[in-house]
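does this look right to u?? flavin-adenine dinucleotide version
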Amino acid sequence: MIPPRFEYAAPKSLQEAVGLLNGRGGDAKVLAGGQSMIPLLKLRLAAPALLVDINRIPGLDYLRESDGFLRIGSLTRVAALGGSRLLQKKYGAIHDASLAIADPLVRNLGTVGGNISHGDPSNDLPAVALAMGAQFAATGASGERSIRAEDFFVDTFATALAHDEILTEVRVPVPPPRSGGAYLKVEQKVADFATAGVAVQITMGRGSECERVGIGITGAGPTAIKAKKAEEAMLGKKPTDASAAAEAAELAAGASSPTSDIRGTVDYKRALIRLLVTRGLARANERARRGA
Ligand SMILES: Cc1cc2nc3c(=O)[nH]c(=O)nc-3n(C[C@H](O)[C@H](O)[C@H](O)COP(=O)(O)OP(=O)(O)OC[C@H]3O[C@@H](n4cnc5c(N)ncnc54)[C@H](O)[C@@H]3O)c2cc1C
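got this back:
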């Protein structure tokens, strides 16, 4: 498939990139890893007049903890998340999700910023960001602002980013002691998008009751979903409390709005969400207990 004609720019600074986007009034798109953008162009589902390639902008590829946050630069490749000992040890949900995304070729090119900014409800990182209470830094013509993950995913392929804003950093609060997280995904075949996926992040108090709970759902609605009622149902309960977990699983399934498609029926997908919430709580609990 041959994409429509477009102009191409490869700015070397954020300001230059924002200026280029701003100058086209919505008819320009950012190009990061290209793993979603290039297929859209080839299928002629997108036809921007200008592609602004941000890969030559320095300082957007990093992963570090500072000032209470894990900070992930938007040009960090998904493969770098999978190879991180820090994530494996302290950010299990992000680590799990990064290994569940597509295949090594896509993970080598696809970026964290692109996975989030694309606003695809089937992408894996948005649900993790919702479960972990992440924020996104975005730079536009009027400077930088911070957007909470729960305010970011507006509709399918639509986010809170303005047409001239570039997502620069994902900020995940450093989990307190006795925290653990997990991301579980069911896919129809290896390297596929999720039939359903669930991210769980918990912090336990001294009596092993949940003090903080985050639950995000992939592939079951127009956007990634934060299952707030399910989160609340687990507060003050032990993750091993089977009836509390079953209630949370039911509430999460109720918060979802999957559609029937080649990957399964609505009932099947809701059943998967129930199962993945229960298993996610169990895995997050194991990791919280061993300090992972
Ligand atoms: C075969 C295949 C299988 C896949 N399977 C999965 C999967 O299982 N799970 C999953 O999560 N993903 C999957 N993906 C999608 C993949 O993870 C993409 O890489 C990701 O969705 C987009 O990241 P990118 O860096 O390639 O962005 P691009 O394709 O370059 O851009 C995607 C969109 O985001 C915008 N954008 C990118 N970066 C920024 C930024 N910093 N600021 C503002 N806007 C930006 C672009 O303008 C564009 O609209 C798959 C892709 C392929 C090709």
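The mean pLDDT is 97. idk if thats expected tbh
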